[in-house]
Write a structure and sequence with these properties.
With 120 residues, this protein is mostly helical. The chain has one domain. α1 packs antiparallel against α3, α2 runs antiparallel to α4 and α3 packs antiparallel against α4.
């Protein structure tokens, strides 16, 4: 996975969670998704700027489309698996500054999954 694909995955997660946020009748789900899509864009921006400081411009962001699922938890779990599987393709394992930013992104996913599974 390249950096522009990684960022595209985060943009997709923002769009999907924002859409589900508008269409839920659960306040706790609404709130958890709101926090996710607000934080994920800031985290994506932090990653993009730091990546570009080290490696140069990422180029055009690869925008992806969502796989059909009615379950936002399944969507986020799948997205998280892609992030964790591709993190060392996006940047080297020894690049701790960028890996720490990916850890921050994983944290946003995991906290949201906790809220959706146990509090919504």
């Amino acid at each position: 996975m390249k950096a522009n694909e990684f960022l595209g995955l985060l943009f997709l997660a923002r769009d999907v969670t924002h859409s589900v946020h508008w269409n839920t009748r659960s306040f706790s789900k609404h709130d958890a998704l709101n926090i996710f899509y607000d934080r994920i864009i800031g985290a994506a921006d932090d990653f993009a700027e730091t990546y570009q400081g080290r490696h140069g411009l990422v180029g055009q962001i690869t925008l992806q489309s969502a796989k059909k699922t009615a379950n936002v938890i399944e969507f986020l779990e799948d997205s998280l698996k892609q992030i964790e599987a591709g993190r060392y393709e996006v940047c080297d394992k020894t690049d701790t500054s960028l890996q720490q930013l990916i850890d921050n992104i994983v944290e946003i996913y995991l906290r949201t999954l906790y809220k959706l599974r146990f509090l919504a």
